[in-house]
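Many introductory courses stop at the sequence. We go one step further.
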Amino acid sequence: MRVMGRKCAASKIASFITLIVPKSEHGNRRFTLPFSRGEIANLLGLSEETVCRQMAKLKRRGVLYAPRGKIEILDWDRLQAVADEACIDPV
């Protein structure tokens, strides 16, 4: 969590998603998102609105698709690049 504290919102969310995705699911398959956006916000110290906005940006950029309760990673490399950023909002 200390490392997450130094990241911007987009990086925190991307890092969180890469951590919760089961390794066997890597690819373009959908899986159930085990947390609501509100729960993600609480875990990461963000507002729910920020989580929604950042996930919408990732969706617009073609990084992920996240209909209610599900998530599909469309571009793993881009998601990892966002997760690795320190504080510049790359999305």
